[in-house]
Design brief:
The protein is mostly beta strands and 411 residues long. The protein has three helices and 21 strands.
Amino acid sequence: MTIKKYILFCRIFLAFCLLLFVSDSLQAQINDKVFKTDYNINPEQTNELRIAFNNLNFFKNNEFDNDFLKGYSLPGFWAQLKLTYQPLDILRLEAGVHILRFWGANKYPNYAYQDIAWWKGNQYQKGFHSLPYLRAQLQLSDHLHLIFGNIYSGANHLLIEPLYNPELNLMADPEVGVQVLYHSRLVDADAWVDWQSFIFDMDTHQESFVTGLSSRIKYNTEDAVVHFYSPIQALIQHRGGEIDTITTNSVQTFMNGVVGVGAIWNINRGKLKNINVELDATGYYQQAGNLWPFDNGTGTYARVSANIADFSVDAAYQRCDNFISMLGNPLYGAVSTSKNDFTFKNTQMLILGLEYSKSFGKGSSFGIDLDIFQHLPTVIHTPEGSFNKKASTSFSVGAYLRFNTSFLIKR
């Protein structure tokens, strides 16, 4: 870490410590307060035509001092302007537009900002990155929802961080496909298909989609003094179709999986609200193709978090052996995205996170977070040979402002 980075880090850390002592009204959990979207249908809005505005403003700065990936900043916003209509108390329809803007940019790749494949990189939009937004949602029962079109994505999937980079809440396109949401006393489940690229006959790019499952088995009630649960998660990405014209490496299939166990101690005494511990085993498998240098890999992810005085403090340990995450932060993997043909052997990383968020009512909220990544010494493999890599420290800091509200037009 350079002297400038160290001074900046110290200033940010001191600012968080000051906020910890002077703020009493802040509420933690940025995922819950800022990134997630409530999917429940309000029966009181039946037969109402409304205009909805959903917007996230963000500034994220990453200072990375390692060979995994280069540092970068994300200044900008996304916004959705929609018409919503509920003809029935179990059916909601939404139609509008989603736009993304990075400050200082004037043209954008036509597709998502996660894994921009070479076969999409030459298609651009000017001014804004914009997409149509369409959703049809049917509540089949008190526990079951079926969604077509733009599904509830990002933080709503509740994927652990080695599988899903939280920055995708800022820059990824809304996922589009079909989704089933189930919530009961014993099981929470989210199953979906995100259709990323559609092809017609003789197209020169690949078909691509992601299938996901994020579930939690609950062994007792969530409001028990100690609540026990097991997360089970899986992601499959498939590229390539029978009617495309690509002949080299045309079919690629990658898989990630998670099985774990966790406990939440609901203390609710003084400033200490709860403590959450979780241990997960992660896996990676390249079933088809040769995009990545490893065909399979495993990892371990252990995390403990506490909500204290409306703040959230997280500490985690991650170890990977040839593990690669399709949608996760490359810091959690064994392959460099900044240097060609660099791979890492049995990497270990310590993570410390501090965050808070504040809700203002009527769908408005604000959040700020700080993450510190400490990579332990490891071995780097390159085409020229292998060498030892010393420990390195990286950090990122972000600020977010969310608006998500609607106004009645006609009943």
